[in-house]
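Q: what sequence does this backbone want?
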């Protein structure tokens, strides 16, 4: 019987397996994942009666097939949430999505005047070279002043480098049609000219955290067709004559092997390249070293007392704090605000070589708690429990010039006849859950029916699927 190996039981790997198993062909699908349960970055952790995601995961898509798959999978356990999120900057909370009236009221006259002048200066500039960097792209649309308040600090926290070193592609993917004009039109209740990506006002969310979607999905598989192997870390991918002939993984300290007819890989593309044996040419290895993922820490705190804030999450733009986002998972659920304990998570974006990544859990818990207190988000609430999740390679980084290194790898991998890269880390693409799932589904269809979906075009046209 033909064996198909899928590396990763995240949204991409699961959707790929789901599509492949519909076929009645003689094949067996083996899903390998280093974690203990499915969901990948979108998994959830249960702690003292509360569910925590690895950073909050809202469900939103304009892809009707994914939308109906989500709704079918969880039924009533999947409910709409009216979004309330704000930005903390200069000690004030600004509505986010941005609201022109709110911005003007809270910025104060000096900043408003400076913002208007810098916006006009940006718009009246006669000659402007095409925007290559995040700074150039956003400044051209909003002016420098608004850019520095609402985009610069947060983006630099997330990516760990100056916005001058971040590709404009990131802005296109995340901000797209949002502009001062669309904000002002929205303030007057006039619909913006196009649907801006950042303005999604509601989303869906499962009762037991985002991971519930993927644990439920994994439960639906027939054992005779699909085998899940957790705590199975892929370490070696052997090839000959442009074909993958063996996949090695470590399970409970022992090496196990699979001989696949085809491999679908959602593990980070850089780790995929270094696992290849024989090793790829030096140029390819050098290109893999140039691609970097940003790593992510969630410090999860359970506090007892009054609800710290009504938002699902707050973006922390103030440069005085290292935390980038704070979430209250209670506010994702209809009646959870009645609970006496509140499930908070504080997110930090780091590199593995940074000091914070290596700090003890106890240090991180104290640090997060003290940042929340200094920011005025906690007062007399009592800390009753906490845990830390460190997630390596969480964000594929679009640093200036990354495309060149990426293209070298993409071209090299495309010469293999039996491997398909899928998902967020696997394709080195800043994909959300729906895009990752689409890549898994399309990859499976290409394999089984020789369809010709272009996986690389998913989420490429800048039409980020946030608001209908
Ligand atoms: C903080 C944060 C917030 C997010 N918020 C949202 C949101 O609000 N909405 C949204 O739609 N998306 C959100 N996302 C994105 C979403 O998590 C991803 O798009 C999605 O999880 C990608 O799915 P995937 O299957 O491609 O990859 P992953 O989820 O990364 O899954 C890959 C799997 O491969 C496994 N793996 C990796 N290496 C190996 C190896 N060597 N051997 C075996 N297994 C391996 C991993 O354990 C993992 O389970 C967020 C992501 C983060 C980090």
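A:
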């Amino acid at each position: 019987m033909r064996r198909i190996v899928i590396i990763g039981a995240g949204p991409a790997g699961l959707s790929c397996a789901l599509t492949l198993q519909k076929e009645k062909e003689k094949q067996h699908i083996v899903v390998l994942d280093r974690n203990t349960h499915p969901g990948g970055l979108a998994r959830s952790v249960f702690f003292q009666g509360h569910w925590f995601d690895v950073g909050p995961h809202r469900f939103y898509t304009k892809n009707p097939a994914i939308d109906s798959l989500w709704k079918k999978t969880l039924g009533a356990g999947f409910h709409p949430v009216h979004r309330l999120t704000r930005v903390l900057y200069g000690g004030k909370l600004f509505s986010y999505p941005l609201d022109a009236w709110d911005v003007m009221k809270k910025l104060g006259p000096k900043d408003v005047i400076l913002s208007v002048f810098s916006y006009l200066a940006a718009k009246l500039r006669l000659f402007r070279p095409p925007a290559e960097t995040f700074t150039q792209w956003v400044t051209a649309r909003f002016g420098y002043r608004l850019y520095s308040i609402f985009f610069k600090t947060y983006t630099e926290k997330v990516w760990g480098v100056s916005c001058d070193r971040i590709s404009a592609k990131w802005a296109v993917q995340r901000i797209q049609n949002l502009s001062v004009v669309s904000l002002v039109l929205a303030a007057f209740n006039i619909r913006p000219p196009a649907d801006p990506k950042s303005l999604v006002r509601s989303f869906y969310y499962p009762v037991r955290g985002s991971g519930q979607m993927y644990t439920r999905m994994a439960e639906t598989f027939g054992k005779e067709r699909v085998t899940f192997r957790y705590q199975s870390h892929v370490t070696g991918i052997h090839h000959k004559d442009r074909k993958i002939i063996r996949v090695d993984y470590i399970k409970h300290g022992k090496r196990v092997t699979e001989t696949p007819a085809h491999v679908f890989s959602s593990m980070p593309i850089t780790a995929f390249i270094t696992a290849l044996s024989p090793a790829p040419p030096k140029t390819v290895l050098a290109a893999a070293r140039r691609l970097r993922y940003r790593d992510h820490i969630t410090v999860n705190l359970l506090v007892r007392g009054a609800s710290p804030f009504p938002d699902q999450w707050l973006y922390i733009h103030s440069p005085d704090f290292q935390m980038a986002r704070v979430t209250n998972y209670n506010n994702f659920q209809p009646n959870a605000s009645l609970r006496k304990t509140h499930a908070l998570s504080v997110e930090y974006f780091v590199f593995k070589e940074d000091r914070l990544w290596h700090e003890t859990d106890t240090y991180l818990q104290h640090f997060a708690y003290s940042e929340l207190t200094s920011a005025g988000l906690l007062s007399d609430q009592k800390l009753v429990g906490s845990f830390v999740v460190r997630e390596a390679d969480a964000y594929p980084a679009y640093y200036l010039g990354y495309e060149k290194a990426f293209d070298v790898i993409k071209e090299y991998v495309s010469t293999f006849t039996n491997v398909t890269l899928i998902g967020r880390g696997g394709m080195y693409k800043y994909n959300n859950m729906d895009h990752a799932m689409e890549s898994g589904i399309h990859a499976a269809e290409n394999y089984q029916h020789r369809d010709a979906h272009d996986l690389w075009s998913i989420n490429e046209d800048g039409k980020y699927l946030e608001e209908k």
